[in-house]
Amino acid sequence: MKITISKRVRRWTGSIAALCFAGWLCLVGYVNWSMHQSPEVFGHVMAKMPMPAAFLVLPFETLWMRARNGHLNVGDTAPGLTVKKLEDHTPTDLASLWAERPVVLVFGSYT
Description:
Layout: H1 5-35, H2 39-47, H3 51-57, H4 60-67, E1 82-84, E2 91-93, H5 94-100
Antiparallel strand pairs: 1-2
């Protein structure tokens, strides 16, 4: 039985599409795994990603929201956290500061 060119092209196209889809699933799985790791591991993985392309082809926001979804509810006491002071970089337990006055944490950059 002779296979026509159009059937051969369809077969190759289907194989390439299946291979691309499997690669995409592997990439999504790898990024999802890295999001559940420490910030250092996640940062190392994302430093090697081409950013515009990664945001276009990955369901980044959905993965991030699921990976970083906490178990706190409104009104719950915040978990214990040790941070370094800006002035002298000494470690400070936030629970000790809450006893004195309200504490505001600001994350971001002012540059």
